[in-house]
Amino acid sequence: MVLLEFKKRGHETRMRVPNxxxxxxxxxxxxVAETVPNRILQFSILAxxxxxxxxVFAPLPPREGHEAAxxxxxxxxxxxxxxxxxxxxxxxxxxxxxKLKRTLPAGNYDVSNLAFGGxxxxxxxITGSTGHRSKTEGRVFRLDLKGVRRRL
Length: 152
What we know:
The protein has one domain: 6 Propeller (Neuraminidase), CATH 2.120.10.30. The chain has no helices and 13 strands. The protein has strands at about 5, 20-25, 30-35, 40-45, 50, 55-60, 70-75, 80-85, 90-95, 100-105, 110-115, 125-130, 140-145. The strands form three sheets. Strands 1, 2, 3, 4, 5 and 6 form a six-stranded mixed β-sheet that branches. Strand 2 and strand 3 form a beta hairpin. The protein is globular, with a radius of gyration of 15 Å.
């Protein structure tokens, strides 16, 4: 097991509650969902076991009166980042610059993870629970996304 080290820059050098992660198909960028404080981080992959400075790729929108936190991550063929946004019932779609491009209904209240699959990799499978995770059952939903494909 290898602990990945990253260069420190500025004030923020530690993650609080890292969660989902995905590596860009170039193999040069690592995205990390940081559940607390509700944001996506980005690291350049410098070499085996070495990451560049941590930077905030996207602060995510809060949900008034509810817990909102990123969980699972996936990338599509255009480099858009799909974020399972726990506690919101939504999947957020961020463009390559980290700007919110779309909000998709997830079919679940507590959206926990996601993955592309199906014919042409154009279906988004989403896990979560129908209500607060401590009180309700889990489900898997599928979204058919026209014109979207997982990056192969």
